[in-house]
Amino acid sequence: MTDDSDTPETKGILFFDVNETLLDTASLKEYAGKRLANRQDLTDVWFTSLLHYSLVETVTGSWHRFGDIAEAVLEMTAERYGISLAESDEPLSAVLASLPAHPDVARGLSALSQQGFTLVALTNSSAELAESQLRSACIDGYFSKTLSVEELCKYKPDLSVYNWAVHLMGRPASECMLIAAHGWDVGGAKLAGMKTAFIARKGQTLYPLAPKPDFVARDIFALSQIINSLTGENI
Q1: Residue 95's closest CA among 180, 40, 19?
Q2: Domains along the chain with CATH numbers
Q3: Does the keyword Hydrolase apply (predicted)?
């Protein structure tokens, strides 16, 4: 990436993970807990399994949409713990589509945009769901593109996803940064040659065996301040 003397068009590309990084998943986990006989203690088990089985799909060459995997894993979690899964008129995909942004996000995205970076969403959600999510959270206007892994039928952190996204934007990986609140996501992007920034949301940690990210920040706005302070440095 380049220094502040460059025009906005020559700044690098910032790719953002969506779920948990930009959007607060608390209401999603609360909904899942209610479906699981009000066992809120099982929501982290469910969400971790959701990420696990999305990776299983990629490794085995299978493909189902993220929302469909979420429903399937909810059924698995209920069966595992001997729970009768409560019926609901609202599918998980509808809850996913209406998640709010974290309080820091709009301010941080605005600051990074004003610094001249191109902002791109790169998500495991389907394109249709991702667009609904960003629009519902009132942050869609900050992004020049929304890229979904469904174009490849592979989930992050498969390296082909990052390589595809970088190629699509027409910039070398060294001029691109992946920003995420997941250690596995920043680890994958780093191995694909991208710069990375880890957003230390509550409960999120880095994977100790993965390459270290270039930046660690408590939230998106804090990251924008860190980047803005690097005047004249290559980030």
Answers
A1: 19
A2: 11-23+97-230 (3.40.50.1000), 24-94 (1.10.150.240)
A3: yes
**Gap between the Cα atoms of 17 and 30, Å rounded:** 21
Cα separation, 92 vs 160, whole angstroms: 28
The tokens describing 69, both together, are 């995997």
Tens digits of per-residue pLDDT, 206-235? 999 999 999 999 999 999 999 999 855 556
Q: Which strand (E) or helix (H) includes residue 13?
A: strand 13-16
Axis crossing angle, helix 26-35 with helix 66-80, rounded to the nearest 10: 40
- 226 three-state secondary structure: helix
Q: Look up tokens 């595809």; give the residue.
A: 164
Tell me the mean pLDDT in the region 180-207. 97
Q: What percent of the chain has pLDDT over 70?
A: 93
